[in-house]
Write a structure and sequence with these properties.
Its EC number is 2.3.1.155, 2.3.1.16. Pathway: Lipid metabolism; fatty acid beta-oxidation. It is found in: Endoplasmic reticulum; Mitochondrion inner membrane; Mitochondrion outer membrane. With 474 residues, this protein is α+β, with helices and mostly antiparallel strands. The protein has two domains: 348 residues, Peroxisomal Thiolase, Chain A, domain 1, CATH 3.40.47; 32 residues, no CATH class. The chain has 17 helices and twelve strands. Strands 1, 2, 3, 4, 5, 8, 9, 10, 11 and 12 form a ten-stranded mixed sheet that branches. The chain has a two-stranded antiparallel sheet with strand order 6-7. About 6% of the residues have low confidence.
């Protein structure tokens, strides 16, 4: 059977309208740095009769750091605890006012599998406050947020803290299956003879460890390899990917220098200095980026270390309440959380196209159009993945053949898109990114004068998420 990507190659011409517009606007950062702020618009609210308004009171994150740096000697719950403490310090919310805590994580530390509970206890929350952990790959904290939304909407809670954490500096490395089986059997052996007999069966290959990889279990393909195939299918060049990555780093550096990344809270690392900012923001040059070799498909691939997100340590936390509760406690919310959707596709050929499907569905669900959105915050796993999604969103053919729409929804205008950088530059602790996207959208709406933000992300397994964030009346 001919693959979906082969169909795309045959049906999406290189000289598409999207490509022409991108060429005219340029993916380089220069025009973006000079873009005027979006002017406030008068739009109808998405509030629904008889449905609770759920608001974001505040959101924070500890600095996102490249793995193997300042957080290398910590455990995941240490990072999550720091984010929770940062949220408590920022909001002064009474700990006993929090009804529930939900955290997302992807690569679990076996000693703290329910990292939400361990982090909550470490941060000083009552042992009477329930907490649980969710996992949904790169949209794990998105799932934590919407789980909290559901609890509040159902009337089970009024105040929920959601978040996500990832520590790529210390990931579980297992013994081989043969060694694990032998060790478990050895633990049950009762006599010295039985133990010696088992030990004598151990062979050198038993000692080979099982190293984790960012691969799809169902396809055994790395996400980077899939991104390379996706970029080729949508005819995204190496230069375009490098240009987009350069844009991400430059905008992130500008946002950092101008103090726009107010969600970042300092973290005093035990035995080390206080970390105050992300350390992966490194604007380079097209010339330097062009010297890097392909990272996955060698020697002709286009995905490199420079146009991919890097392995990151970090944690985030966000305070959710019903609007009524927030106002009663004296808080001025930042934003409403409105409709959201989750989607799933073929994990082989559509692994990274979740934002296209989710964006189309959430716009249809809310009755909004691309023109109604003032701030887009999309997760940047790879530059090629982002550009492929933008191209797919702007394709009638793709909309009709895969999304199930009569026509395209259109690509987001770049002047509204990830204006303060993204995962390529800020970093991507898998389960912590969703909270960053939501709070950044809220902050951008206030700063830039918009009303609606759209958050979207892809995830392993061919899944995706999108949510509408509405600015709280100022």
């Amino acid at each position: 059977m001919t693959s979906m990507l082969t169909h795309i190659i045959r049906n999406l011409p290189a000289s598409s309208a999207w490509a022409a517009r991108v060429s005219a606007r340029s993916l380089s950062c220069s025009s973006q740095l000079q873009a005027a702020a979006v002017q406030p618009k008068s739009k109808k609210t998405l509030a629904k009769s008889g449905v609770k308004n759920i608001v974001v009171v505040e959101g924070v994150r500890i600095p996102f750091l490249q793995s193997g740096t300042s957080y290398a000697d910590l455990m995941p719950h240490d990072l999550a605890r720091a984010a929770l403490q940062g949220l408590l310090n920022r909001t002064s919310v009474p700990k006993d006012a929090v009804d529930y805590i939900v955290y997302g994580t992807v690569i679990q530390e076996v000693k703290t599998s329910n990292v939400a509970r361990e982090a909550a206890l470490g941060a000083g929350f009552s042992d009477k406050t329930p907490a649980h952990t969710v996992t949904m790959a790169c949209i794990s904290s998105n799932q934590a947020i919407t789980t909290g939304v559901g609890m509040i909407a159902a009337g089970q809670c009024d105040v929920v803290v959601a978040g996500g954490v990832e520590l790529m500096s210390d990931i579980p490395i297992r013994h081989s299956r043969k060694m694990r089986k032998t060790m478990l059997t050895l633990n049950k052996a009762k006599t010295l003879g039985q133990k010696l007999s088992l030990i004598s069966k151990i062979r050198p290959d038993y000692f080979a460890p099982e190293l984790p990889g960012v691969t799809e279990f169902s396809t055994n393909e790395t996400m980077g390899h899939s991104a390379d195939r996706l970029a080729a299918a949508f005819e995204i060049s190496r230069v375009e990917q490098d240009e987009y990555a350069f844009r991400s780093h430059t905008l992130a550096k500008k946002a950092q220098d101008e103090g726009l990344l107010v969600d970042v809270v300092p973290f005093k690392v035990p035995g080390k200095d206080t970390v105050t900012k992300d350390n992966g923001i490194r604007p380079s040059s097209m010339e330097q980026m062009g010297k890097l070799k392909p990272a996955f498909v060698k020697p002709y691939g286009t995905v490199t270390a420079a146009n991919s997100s890097f392995l990151t340590d970090g944690a985030s936390a966000i305070l959710l309440m019903s609007e009524e509760k927030a106002l009663a406690m004296g808080y001025k919310p930042k934003a409403y959380l409105r409709d959201f959707v989750y989607v799933s596709q073929d994990p082989k050929d559509q692994l990274l196209l979740g934002p296209t499907y989710a964006t189309s569905k959430v716009l249809e669900k809310t009755g909004l159009t691309m023109a109604d959105i003032d701030a887009f915050e999309f997760h940047e796993a790879f530059a090629g993945q982002i550009l492929a999604n933008l191209k797919a969103l702007d394709s009638d053919w793709f909309a009709q053949n895969y999304v199930g729409r009569k026509s395209k929804v259109g690509a987001p205008p770049l002047e509204k898109f990830n204006n303060w950088g993204g995962s390529l530059s800020l970093g991507h602790p898998f389960a912590a990114t969703g909270c960053r996207l939501v709070i950044t959208a809220a902050h951008r709406l206030k700063k830039e004068g918009g009303q609606y933000g759209l958050v979207a992300a892809c995830a392993a397994g061919g899944q995706g998420h999108a949510m509408i964030v509405e600015l709280y009346p100022q």
